[in-house]
């Protein structure tokens, strides 16, 4: 997913001395072995690479400091080792620091901040992030932050995109009440953040009505987490893309799906589900691979008229797979284009 709100760096008006000095101070707290910030000299910060200014006042509105991904030509993923930990993703050039320096708080007009893929060495996400109230895009993914997510991120009422995915699984949420302040949020990614047993987890599913995409993959969630106090009647009315893969759901489907009529894609792969799947009328892609399903009718293939892609690989299907018949279907036509069934025990032709 690409989400950009930046124009070209302003080439005619210099940024304020205060903002230039704040950026230089921030630079000096980092190890820049790959010379990513080599253009950051002098005071004309609107001319620096990775810095974006508005077109009128010369205010810094964007910092694109994401690590550069390696464009490997090898037919397998690129891995790297930092402090004995193996990371996937092939980050070739990145910044490193012992923490995220508070000098960034001087950038009062900042709307876009991307620090993804860098190395902040297990430090905590700092509290000052919650003071950058103009932010509409915040990406701290895979930057080796750890500890508890600060609640004052909920102060960022203009935020549309928040990505706190962490490859090392060292980020923790103790209470999700802060999401109720994210009144404009459209995309939320918390993959591998530890969410099992977190207080107010239900707020993620009904307190952000603007949410279009939610990814909580490999977060330790179970049926219990989504059953307790969940207000099903208010569940994410505009959600289109939901990723609950590689969690610990088992048996029947969580009741939260009942009112998600806007869903276009649903990923439940890598769980322990084995009960019938409710029909979601607008669903285009469904991934239930690597679960415990045994009977084709539980999937309801021929009742899903609009479905374009269905992934049921690595389950326990054994019976013969037959086409639709009058009593199996209410569809006049089917949209199905891709069907993934490998890794099962299907019989017949």
Automatic annotation (TrEMBL):
<keyword id="KW-0732">Signal</keyword>
<dbReference type="Pfam" id="PF23598">
    <property type="entry name" value="LRR_14"/>
</dbReference>
<dbReference type="InterPro" id="IPR032675">
    <property type="entry name" value="LRR_dom_sf"/>
</dbReference>
<dbReference type="Pfam" id="PF08263">
    <property type="entry name" value="LRRNT_2"/>
</dbReference>
<dbReference type="InterPro" id="IPR055414">
    <property type="entry name" value="LRR_R13L4/SHOC2-like"/>
</dbReference>
<keyword id="KW-0433">Leucine-rich repeat</keyword>
<keyword id="KW-0812">Transmembrane</keyword>
<keyword id="KW-1133">Transmembrane helix</keyword>
<dbReference type="GO" id="GO:0016020">
    <property type="term" value="C:membrane"/>
</dbReference>
<keyword id="KW-0325">Glycoprotein</keyword>
<feature type="domain" description="Disease resistance R13L4/SHOC-2-like LRR">
    <location>
        <begin position="103"/>
        <end position="289"/>
    </location>
</feature>
<keyword id="KW-0677">Repeat</keyword>
<dbReference type="InterPro" id="IPR013210">
    <property type="entry name" value="LRR_N_plant-typ"/>
</dbReference>
<dbReference type="InterPro" id="IPR046956">
    <property type="entry name" value="RLP23-like"/>
</dbReference>
<keyword id="KW-0472">Membrane</keyword>
<feature type="domain" description="Leucine-rich repeat-containing N-terminal plant-type">
    <location>
        <begin position="17"/>
        <end position="54"/>
    </location>
</feature>
<protein>
    <submittedName>
        <fullName>Leucine-rich repeat protein</fullName>
    </submittedName>
</protein>
<dbReference type="InterPro" id="IPR003591">
    <property type="entry name" value="Leu-rich_rpt_typical-subtyp"/>
</dbReference>
